[in-house]
Amino acid sequence: MKLVIITGLSGAGKSQAMKCMEDLGFYCVDNLPPVLIPKFAELCFNSNGEIQKIALVIDIRGGKFFDDLFDSLENLKSSGYKYEILFLDASDETLIKRFKETRRIHPLSPKGRIIDGINAERKKLDKLRDKADKIIDTTNMTPGQLKKEIRKIYLDGSETNNILISVLSFGFKHGIPLDADLVFDVRFLPNPHYIENLRDFTGNDEKVRKYVMNWPESIEFVKRLNEMIDFLIPFYVREGKMQLVIAIGCTGGKHRSVTVANILYEYLKEKGHKVSVNHRDIPADVVKG
């Protein structure tokens, strides 16, 4: 079980860090009272493997409860639970600017100057910063750059194998899927709809698939489509994208798009990607062959 405690200065990006950790599959809890950390770790440990990665955001918002943090960390250690601390920091000027932009009040200076709250918070977090396993200075970082840095630290395995790919077939006459990142039009391929003994079947049926793929242009298109997706995936991952929706469209969304979507799904699955396939416009009452 991996346990990460996210802490640091108010305005340094802890909320953004937590969102990124969620995208990486961490079970995240914000502002958990520190005294509950050992019990929470025990519950997760006894979850029969359902919860393997945990991220807890702990900071001075906990008020007097925050003072229990060091005792809780000692309890974790004595109970055999390993943890690491991720500390987010930023310059005073940057923190002041962020508070002013969001018009938020510093939790340690609700009626005073922002800088007074920052100074008090730095003093309160000084020992915790010294215990941190990893420190990220977000002074010159955009949210996207922070996300990239966290992914670099906590992403397990190959990055390209952690993006979730959804392959979706559809019919243009029913509208392009709103959530599509990439749309490919296969209406140029020979249409089984005009073959009487194929019309009532779908691309899930072998006879339709054989017909669609029985043409040189179909074979060449699928080859180039696979190459294009292979080329694009690393760049989407580099930009921090966690999910990619690839839509394949034909006229009705029943024959050609289904065939190509299935072939692309099989190709990506064979390469080890996390991939699913869905045929949006096949009528619910159509029986698959």
UniProtKB/TrEMBL annotation:
Q: Which Gene3D superfamilies match?
A: P-loop containing nucleotide triphosphate hydrolases (3.40.50.300)
RapZ-like N-terminal domain mapped to chain residues: 1-154
- Where do the annotations place ATP binding? 8-15
Record-listed GTP binding positions: 59-62
Task: Pinpoint the RapZ C-terminal domain residues.
Answer: 165-282
**UniProt-recorded Gene Ontology molecular function terms:** ATP binding; GTP binding
Query: Is Ribonucleoprotein found in the keyword set?
Result: no
Give one Pfam hit by family name: PapZ_C
Kindly state which keywords UniProt assigns to this record, in alphabetical order: ATP-binding, GTP-binding, Nucleotide-binding
Question: Do the record's keywords include Flavoprotein?
Answer: no
- What InterPro entries does this protein's entry cite? P-loop_NTPase, RapZ-like, RapZ-like_N, RapZ_C
Mind telling me which NCBIfam families this protein's record contains?
PRK05416.1
Q: What HAMAP family does its record include?
A: RapZ_like (MF_00636)
Q: What is this protein's record name? A: UPF0042 nucleotide-binding protein
